[in-house]
Amino acid sequence: xxxxxxxxxxxxxxxxxxxxxxxxxxxxxxxxxxxxxxxxxxxxxxxxxxxxxxxxxxxxxxxxxxxxxxxxxxxxxxxxxxxxxxxxxxxxxxxxxxxxxxxxxxxxxxxxxxxxxxxxxxxxxxxxxxxxxxxxxxxxxxxxxxxxxxxxxxxxxxxxxxxxxxxxxxxxxxxxxxxxxxxxxxxxxxxxxxxxxxxxxxxxxxxxxxxxxxxxxxxxxxxxxxxxxxxxxxxxxxxxxxxxxxxxxxxxxxxxxxxxxxxxxxxxxxxxxxxxxxxxxxxxxxxxxxxxxxxxxxxxxxxxxxxxxxxxxxxxxxxxxxxxxxxxxxxxxxxxxxxxxxxxxxxxxxxxxxxxxxxxxxxxxxxxxxxxxxxxxxxxxxxxxxxxxxxxxxx
Length: 395
Prior knowledge:
By secondary structure, the chain is mostly beta strands. It has helices at 2-7, 76-81, 134-146, 161-171, 184-187; strands spanning 11-13, 33-42, 52-59, 84-89, 92-97, 175-176, 179-180, 190-192, 227-229, 232-233, 238-239, 245-247, 252-260, 270-288, 302-307, 317-325, 337-349, 352-362, 367-378, 389-394. The strands form 6 sheets. Strands 12, 13, 14, 15, 16, 17, 18, 19 and 20 form a 9-stranded mixed beta sheet that branches. The radius of gyration is 25 Å and the shape is globular. The protein starts with a helix and ends with a strand.
C-alpha cells in the first residue's frame, strides 16, 4: 500500500462516507463561519451612482469529527502517503498537493487542511527526507493514529506499517513493535491520555487489552487508547512541561527482542517481544480513584502509596505519587502491590524533584508486564534514591 499511494497520480478520498456502500457525492453542508459575512456597500466610482458590496467573513475551522474517515485507522496512511488527493468532505471538495512543498518557515498556503494536529509545514513536511525531525514527526503521527478506531485490534501494527516503513528511511533505526531502537528509552515514556474515554467528572474509563495478542505490553500498540509521549528536549534540557531534566537514575535498556509474524517484514505484526532493562525498583501500593469521585486533579487514574511510620496516626499509608493505567486490568485492583521502575528525574520546584517511570506487575519469577506509568514527587530523597540497580525482563 505504501508504493500504491506514493506512486498514484491522485488519490480520491471519500471522507464523508460512513461505509464503502454509502457513496460520497453528497451535497456539501451550508458553510459555517467563525465571523459571519458582513456586507459593506460602496460606490466603485465617485461619478457612478451604481453600488457594489464587499463581503467580509472568516470561515470556520475544519471540524474533523464530521468526516467519518478521520476516525478510521486504516485510512490514515492514504492521507499521509498520497502525493495528491481530492477529498470529498462534508463541506465540499478540497485538494492536497504535496508537490508544492511549503518553505522551511512554513510561510505558504500549503498546509494540509485535513491534518490540524500534525506539524505538516516547513521542515516537518516530509516523512522520508528529514532525519533531523524524524522523532517529532513519529510522535505526532503516532498520537493521531492511536486515537483512531480499528474493527480488529490485531491490525494495530499493520495499519500503520506503511507509514512506519516510509519514516524508517529517515529514522535509520530498527523498528520494534511500534518503537524505534535508537530512542527506545524515551519511547517507553508513552502514556494513555487521561481525558480519553471519560464519562462525567472524576470518572476515567479505560478499555481492556485486546483478547488476541497484538504487541508486548511495553509497546503503545498493545492498548486500545489514545497515547501521548513525555518528550525530553535536549536543546534546553527540559521536557514539554518545562521541568528541568536532572538524570535517568541509571535507567538503561539492555536488550530488546521481537519475533515477527512475517520474518521478512520488520514493520508488520509481531508474535512476541521481550525487553530487558536495568533500573531502580520500588514496590508500592496501588489505590485507584473511587468510581464517581470528583477530584481537582484528573491527570491520574489512582494513587501510589507506601506504608510509612511517619504518616498521620489516623492513617498508616502515605501517598507518594500518582499513576496512569494503560488499560482496564482486573489484576490492577485496590491494594495490589505494583513494582515501579524509575526512568527519569526532573526538578519540579526548588527542593522538590519528580520521578517518572513505569508500573509493572509480575508475570512469574522471571518476567514482568507493563500496566501503566507513574510520577512521584520527592523531597531530596525518596523510595528510588537509595535502591539498588536490578535487571528486569518485560514482556
